[in-house]
Amino acid sequence: MDSVEPIVDPNDQVMDIIQDVFPFASTNINHEREDDVPTPIDSAEFEQYEKLLKNANQELYPGCESFSVLTAIVELMHGKIKYRMSNLCFDYFLGIFKRMLLTDNCLPKDHKHVQKVLNGLGLGYEKIHACKNNCMLFYKEHETSDTCLICNESRFKMTSQNRAIKIPQKVMRYLPLKPRLQRLYMSTHTVTDMRWHKEKRVDDDVMRHPADGEAWKEFDRTFPEFAADPRNERLGLAAEGFNPYGVLNQHHSTWLIFRIPI
After folding, report:
1. In the predicted model, what is the mean pLDDT of the chain?
2. How does pLDDT run across 206-242, given as a tens digit for each residue?
3. 106, 94, 75, 62: which is closest to 13 by C-alpha?
4. Nearest to residue 136, comparing CAs of 182, 93, 169?
5. How far apart are CA 123 and CA 114, in angstroms?
6. How far apart are the first and last CA of the chain?
7. CB-side neighbour CA atoms (13 Å) of 80
8. Contact predicate 55/68, CB 8 Å
9. Is 4 exposed, middle or buried (0-12, 13-18, 19+ CB in 10 A)?
10. From what superkingdom does this record's organism come (predicted)?
11. Which helix (H) or strand (E) holds 171?
12. 3-class SS string, 89-112
């Protein structure tokens, strides 16, 4: 017989995401007993948790039981990413959906406001200005520099003198690695997968995982202390160029450099 996947309530899935992101906050509030020692929580982090919890419990519109504000946002953003929808296209359809709903609905009006809600889930990125000719990054001790130290190229584009906001020539988007690795171990859905290579892998000369490869085994022989702990992660480096939204008649391409757990 074919296995039947259980029907999962989207609202429950969103609450699971929040508990994965803020395990200490949810534990302190929901499961604290007299003999428990509360885990200290950063005030700013707890404020983010309360905002997400409010959006997760707030109905999309009065009487709506199927979607909370946060559930609707997560579903819409999932569709945007899955079908490679541009921000302008997303704003257009989001505005239509908002007009379709009851007038007192709580759906955000555009992508910018959606991002503000989802920022509380973490895993954001840092914008770091770069030299137009890729000579250097305006980062750390060079964060306040206005010209490249190597080629003397201006950091910002030439704009009207009346424009208050300076536009950088080039921007690098950096996704910090440490919080992403932490998230993999914070989530109950992924923590067992992170140790699979050590605890559940079958060594039968069949290639199913990088751990079956000779490079992985040689690394373990070279660094036995590191390999002894299944929670230690090996990182792979990959680079790939792509054309945003699949518009092949444009010459623009974006090059991504990934550090990935393997």
Report:
1. 83
2. 888 889 999 899 999 999 999 999 989 888 888 777 6
3. 75
4. 169
5. 15
6. 34
7. 19
8. yes
9. exposed
10. Eukaryota
11. strand 170-174
12. HHHHHHHHHHHHCCCCCCCCCCHH
Place of tokens 């300076």: 166
Kindly tell me the burial class for residue 216, based on how many C-beta atoms sit within 10 Å of its own C-beta (0-12, 13-18, 19 or more).
middle
User: How far apart are the C-alpha atoms of 119 and 178, rounded to whole Å?
Assistant: 17
Residue with tokens 């490249």: 148
pLDDT higher at 253 or 55: 55
How many of the other CB atoms lie within 10 Å of CB of 120?
20
Taking CB atoms within 8 Å and a gap of at least 24, the contacts of 198-204 are: 198/230, 199/230
Question: Is this structure's pTM higher than 0.70?
Answer: no
> For residue 15, is pLDDT > 70?
yes
Q: Which residues pair with 259 in a beta bridge?
A: 237
What is the per-residue pLDDT for 1? 43
Q: How far is CA 249 from CA 88, 185, 253, 256, in A?
A: 19, 42, 11, 20
For strands 254-261 and 235-242, give the pairing. antiparallel
pLDDT digits (tens, 9 = 90+) for 134-149: 899 999 999 999 999 9
3-class DSSP state of 239 = strand
Residues contacting residue 167 through CB under 8 Å, at least 6 positions apart: 156, 157, 159
CA 16 to chain centre: 16
CB atoms within 10 A of CB 25: 21
